[in-house]
Design goal:
Elements (H helix, E strand, L loop, with lengths): L2 E5 L5 E5 L4 H10 L7 E4 L5 H12 L3 E5 L2 E5 L10 H4 L9 H8 L1 E5 L11 H10 L3 E5 L2 E5 L8 E3 L5 H11 L5 E5 L5 H12 L3 E3 L5 E5 L7 E4 L4 H14 L2 E5 L7 H9 L3 E5 L2 E5 L9 E2 L11 H8 L5 E5 L10 H6 L3 E5 L2 E5 L8 E3 L3 H13 L3 E5 L2 H6 L3 H7 L3 E5 L2
Parallel strand pairs: 2-14, 3-13, 9-10, 17-18, 21-22
Antiparallel strand pairs: 1-22, 1-23, 3-5, 4-5, 6-8, 7-8, 10-12, 11-12, 14-16, 15-16, 18-20, 19-20
Helix pairs in contact: 1-2, 1-7, 4-6, 5-6, 6-7, 8-10, 8-12, 10-12
Length: 418
């Protein structure tokens, strides 16, 4: 099993090419199953989660022609066989195929993603939304069984919370429903706006993305399409922290400053400089870091997917920082591993109190999930001595060539293959 060995203390300087957004690519691959015509997606990141979703599309009889950073998906005859658990257990986003399979075929069977249940977030919001559109849904031995014997029909769907996955599912299903679908309390993330742009390119009629109210007209006439995925704002935020935690300067190519307003606000509060460039944005730290309080919220609030990275940064800042997690209840699994590196962090319910300016010392740590993994890498960049991050297959799910990109900017980092 691969590991990363990091020798900390190097200042990062240079240019990082930000890849396409994984969280935009996954629902777009699922949405391609709605369309019998060829669709091309470009700027796809070379990460394991994208490969998993493409494998799932192939399982349902999609022709997948994959190149470097691009894929052409053609699904003339969609297979209706049950989505296998062996595939969906690898990531929760695979539940996104439920809506397009149901919308196009009239019925679908999708194994529950690992660790999820109907009553647990986020799957219940998908179910609620599809039922509002006329679907009949049951749980049979760990499988979601959905049917729409009379077809899907447009309706007003009020989501219990601004779930990105449920908003995406409702948008996809609404494109084939009879009449208009109104989504209230919709997620506002850039990835949702990018999905709307992709659906429109294929012939759908959608408006209101980026607001809490999205309108989708049904009975879509599908056409061949090409779409370029947006850059990954979470990857950009991660490298921004890498520049800040090492006291360096990085230009993040293709990064969109407008997608990172809440993140930039916190960085600047902590003493980090951020400005736009002709090619993206630049992040630099020239002085000491100052602690800051952070509360994760749905977009345009501070993203939960950057919480772990900012916790690592807070350990190197003067004074105390308080990070409050409001999106996911189990998002502090990186805390014990950061403490192994010397961090002083106290958990108080949904909040973590970080005592800053602690001396970090390299040691062996264990990655537990995607964002927790990269927080340990960031801490290792600032730690004295050698840090070994184990179980980095989590990193490969969502970061394209992380070690290579860091090494090109001056990091002493090496991938070890067992």
């Amino acid at each position: 099993m691969d590991r990363l060995r990091i020798r900390g203390g190097n200042v990062l300087r240079g240019v990082v090419d930000i890849s396409g957004a994984k969280n935009a690519a996954l629902p777009q691959i699922a949405a391609a199953l709605l369309n019998p015509n060829p669709v091309e997606l470009t700027n796809l990141p070379a990460v394991r989660d994208v490969d998993t979703m493409l494998t799932l599309a192939s399982f349902h009889n999609a022709e997948v022609d994959k190149g470097i950073g691009r894929v052409v998906i053609t699904t003339k005859d969609l297979s209706q066989q049950e989505t296998p658990y062996d595939t969906v257990r690898r990531m929760r986003a695979t539940v996104l195929v439920l809506a397009p399979l149901l919308a196009r075929c009239g019925h679908a069977k999708v194994s529950l993603p690992g660790g999820c249940a109907i009553g647990a977030r986020p799957v219940n919001m998908h179910i609620h939304a599809l039922e509002m559109l006329g679907a009949e849904i049951a749980l049979e031995r760990g499988t979601i069984v959905a049917s729409a014997p009379n077809g899907l029909r447009g309706a007003r769907v009020v989501l219990p919370g601004p779930s990105v996955g449920a908003t995406a599912a409702t948008m996809m299903a609404g494109t084939t429903a009879k009449g208009e679908t109104e989504i209230l309390n919709a997620a506002r993330e850039p990835e949702i706006a990018d999905l709307a742009a992709f659906l429109r390119a294929m012939g759908a009629r959608i408006e209101g993305e980026g607001t809490h109210r999205i309108l989708v007209s049904g009975d879509t006439s599908w056409r061949a399409a090409r779409h370029h995925c947006i850059p990954d704002r979470i990857e950009a935020g991660t490298y921004a922290v890498a520049a800040a935690i090492t006291g360096g300067e990085l230009e993040l190519l293709n990064a969109r400053l407008e997608h990172l307003a809440s993140v930039v606000q916190v960085l600047e509060t902590m003493g980090v400089e951020v400005w736009p460039s002709d090619r993206g944005m630049v992040v630099a730290r020239r002085g000491p870091l100052t602690g800051a309080d952070v509360t994760t919220e749905p977009y345009p609030g501070f993203p939960t997917d950057l919480q772990a990275q900012f916790m690592a940064l807070a350990t190197c800042a003067e004074g105390a920082s308080l990070i409050r997690e409001t999106v996911f209840e189990n998002r502090f699994m990186h805390l014990p591993e950061l403490c192994r590196l010397g961090a002083e962090i106290k958990l108080q319910g949904p909040s973590a109190l970080i005592r800053g300016k602690t001396e970090l010392f390299g040691t062996s740590v264990m990655a537990t999930d995607l964002r927790a993994s990269v927080s340990l890498v960031l801490a290792g960049l600032a730690a004295e001595g050698e840090t070994v991050v184990n179980r980095i297959y989590h990193l490969d799910r969502g970061y394209e060539q992380l070690d290579d990109k860091l090494r090109r900017c001056g990091a002493d980092i090496e991938r070890l293959t067992a």
